[in-house]
Amino acid sequence: MDKNSSSISVAMENLAQKAARWTGSSPAFGFAVATIVVWAALGPHFGYSDTWQLVVNTGTTVVTFLMVFLIQRSQNKDALAIQLKLNELVAAMQGASNRMISVEELSENDLQILQAHYAALSKMASRDSSLTESHSVEEATRRHQSKMQRKTGDKRESQ
User: Fold this and answer.
1) How far is CA 31 from the centre of its chain?
2) Residue 43 belongs to some domain of the structure
3) Residue 156: inside a domain, yes or no?
4) Which residues contact 17 (CB under 8 A, 6 or more apart)?
5) Is residue 150 a contact partner of residue 94, using CB atoms and an 8 Å limit?
6) Neighbour tally for 88: CB within 10 Å
7) Whole domain around residue 45: which residue ranges?
8) What is the per-residue pLDDT across 11-68, written as a single tens digit (0 to 9) for each?
C-alpha cells in the first residue's frame, strides 16, 4: 500500500470512528428527533405536499444508506478485535487446541461438526456435575490461588 492510500485509509478510519461515536450518542438522537419534529411542523406550511414528503424520504434514505456501511464497518472491526482476543486466550491456555485459532476461517459444515463436538462435551459435563458445583465460589478461589502461585513461580524463574 502506498503512502497516499494509507493516509486516506487512516483519515477514513478516523472519520468513521468519530461518526460512529457521534451517531450513537444522545445528542445525535436528539438531533434526529428535532429534525423530524421540524419537518412535521412545516407540513401545514407546505400543504403536506409531495415535495415536503420527498424531502424527508430522501434525507432518511441517504442517512440509512450511509449508516449501513458505517455500522458494518464498526461490526467488522469489533468482530476482528474480539476474534484476536479469543485467539490470544486459546494460544495462551495450556491444553487448548491451537487448531481453534482462526476457526472462523473454516467452512460452515466444519463449524457445525465442531459445534456438535462441543455440544456432546457439554452434555457429558452436565451429567457429571451440576452447574453450581462446576462454577462455585470455592472453584473460583482455587483457580485464583493457582494463577497467583503460577505467577509468583514465573517471576522466580525469570530472576
Assistant:
1) 26
2) yes
3) no
4) none
5) no
6) 11
7) 1-96
8) 999 999 999 999 999 999 999 999 999 999 999 999 999 999 999 999 999 999 999 9
Q: Are 20 and 70 in contact (CB under 8 A)?
A: yes
Helix ranges, the chain (H): 3-23, 26-42, 50-92, 108-128, 131-134, 137-158
Joined together, the cell numbers standing for residue 59 give 434525507
Measured CA to CA, the distance from residue 159 to residue 157 in angstroms comes to 6
Per the domain annotation, does 129 fall within a domain? Answer: no
With respect to residue 76, please indicate whether it lies within any of the assigned structural domains: yes
Q: What is the pLDDT of residues 78-130, one digit of tens each?
A: 999 999 999 999 899 888 888 888 888 999 999 999 999 888 888 887 776 66
Asked if residues 36 and 56 have their Cβ atoms less than 8 Å apart, the reply is: yes
Q: Would you state the pLDDT for residue 149?
A: 85
How many independent structural domains does the chain possess?
1
